[in-house]
Amino acid sequence: MPLILDSSPSPSPPLSPIEPSIATVRRYEHHESDIVIVGAGILGTSLAVTLARQDRSVILLEKSLKEPDRIVGELLQPGGVQALKKLGLRDCLEDIDAIRVKGYEVIYYGNGVEIPYPLNAAGDDKSESAGLSCGKSELGNNGGVKRPEGRSFHHGRFIQQLRAAAMREENISLIESTVTNTIKDGWTGQVLGVEAESKDGRKDVYFGQLTVLADGYASRFRKEFIAHAPVSKSKFYGLELIDADLPRSMHGHVVLGEGAPVLLYQIGTRETRALVDVPDGTSSASLANGGVKGHLRNVVLPSLPKCVQSSFERALDDGKLRSMPNSWLPPSTQQIPGMILLGDAMNMRHPLTGGGMTVAFNDVVMLGDLLSPEKVPDLGDTARVKQQMRKFHWRRKNLTSVINILAQALYALFAANDPQLKALQLGCFRYFQQGGQCIDGPVGLLAGIIRQPFVLFYHFFAVALLAIWLVISESPVYRLPLTLISSVGIFWKACVVIFPFIFSELRS
Questions:
Q1: Which of 18-22, 148-152, 447-451, 493-497 bottoms out in mean pLDDT, i.e. has the lowest?
Q2: Can you give the pLDDT at residue 133?
Q3: CA distance readout (Å), 100 to 77, 249, 396
């Protein structure tokens, strides 16, 4: 339960400029600041730096400042790299053995197709209208345009770089403490700050004009402020392969076969991450069949490229297998006075497309503008902050709705478990084989570069129509009536896959 302050509210004088040294004293001795941020992860730390550079006083709370050890949050798409540069944090990708990522290799039952990040989507405004007609791209290989690149890395190393950047900011106090509750005004319901407990058991309170809760996918505050809960139907099981020989260097790999998808990508000079999606109730992962390790050894291992199998088997024998739930949580508007819920605490999508960090950094870019001192001089002005957060909810959709919907729809196709989805999966692979805008458009969306939901809608149903054409063209004439019925089923399944996610994004 949140701590409720029942004292009668009193008007507060307008804020006057505060010298950094005085602000530091307020933060450490009186635990008061302009903004309290809970969670020194991807979003919380970058937001703290952004606001601090706008001369806001920031208290950043994190339960553990040890280097995190996670199996996701390791691939930053080009759209995320661009956002990181806008935030002035691009140097955080240096000195962590990060690997350049030039695109993807999709392997469908042993056949591969390269999907490089597009030439005609360099991240400027012009790229937002790219990616509609399939065929040969208008820009040739000698067009003089550099392809955008992503980065992959050890998640913990990157987080520590971000935290180091935060600690260099005079306007930030980074404190190791576990937040246990919010503090509310008993008269207005406004969130005034948080209660926290240090490692030695000492209880503290921290106050800010605005409180940001960015405590990740396992948020302890989500239930209090959001009506709907995350939905998880599968888990990623992760292995770290040593000296793996990938089919295509500096590319993420998606391996498709009889089961759910497998992701392979380098996270260091010698290390490669393998993520295996295991849907709930997978029979080959039952205890009778040897559990998840039995599934990985008997089902997944034989489906991998030959060049990867030995390193995958060695990692499996080492026994260092970890898991992470794959969750879906649509975004929601922020209407709680004095508080904002952000990051994975507010919005999640399947990590198949690696879009989480790209969403987070672009959210911070937008928040840095909407909550800037020029637009919100006083973060205690609740009405103004709520107005800006309504703008935030809708403005972010050009990017986040694309990444959210794409992640869920692509996972439905790549983890196909019925004939209609299998047909759509084949249609998707054949679509990629067309080349040109048939890969530039989809990968531009995935990369966070093309930011037009209509482009996603166009390509998704182009895949559906191609899948239908493949079924019709490969069926004998005498089966035409059944083929037409099957075609209707494929189109219906495509609608069932994508429209619920579109509607969830339209919900306010």
A1: 18-22
A2: 52
A3: 10, 9, 27
**Rounded Cα–Cα distance for residues 428 and 41 (Å):** 35
Helix axes 437-446, 453-473, angle to 10 degrees: 130
Strand order in the sheet with 150-152: 75-76, 150-152, 99-101
Check: CB of residue 68 under 8 Å from CB of residue 154.
Answer: no
Q: Calculate mean pLDDT across residues 264-277.
A: 97
User: Kindly report the CA angle at 251 between 248 and 252, in degrees rounded to 5?
Assistant: 115
Beta bridge partners of 115: 104
What is the model's pTM?
0.90
The answer on pLDDT for 130 being more than 70 is: no
416/260 Cα distance (integer angstroms): 7
State the helix-helix crossing angle for 453-473 and 397-414, rounded to 10 degrees: 20
172 within 8 A of 26, measured Cβ to Cβ: no
Q: Which of 313, 234, 304, 244 is nearest to 273 (CA)?
A: 244
| Residue the block writes with tokens 């790299």 | 81
**Beta pairing, strands 203-213 & 339-341:** parallel
As a three-state string, the secondary structure of 352-391 is: HHCCHHHHHHHHHHHHHHHCCCCCCCCCCCHHHHHHHHHH
Q: How many CA atoms lie within 13 A of 141 on its CB side?
A: 1
* Count helices and strands in the chain by DSSP H and E runs: 15, 18
Nearest to 281 by CA among 326, 233, 238, 328: 233
Torsions phi, psi of 279, nearest 5? -65, 150
The secondary element (H helix, E strand) that includes residue 203 is: strand 203-213
Q: How far apart are CA 179 and CA 183, in angstroms?
A: 11
φ, ψ dihedrals at 8, nearest 5°:
-65, 135
Using pLDDT thresholds of 50, 70 and 90, give the confidence band for residue 508.
Answer: low
Q: Give the largest Cα separation in the chain, rounded.
A: 84
User: What value does the mean pLDDT of the chain take?
Assistant: 90
**Range 154-180 burial, b when 16+ CB lie within 10 A, else e:** bbbbbbbbbbebbeebebbbbbebbbe
Q: Are 229 and 218 in contact (CB under 8 A)?
A: no
3-state secondary structure of 26: helix
Burial class (CB within 10 angstroms; exposed 0-12, middle 13-18, buried 19+) of 21: exposed
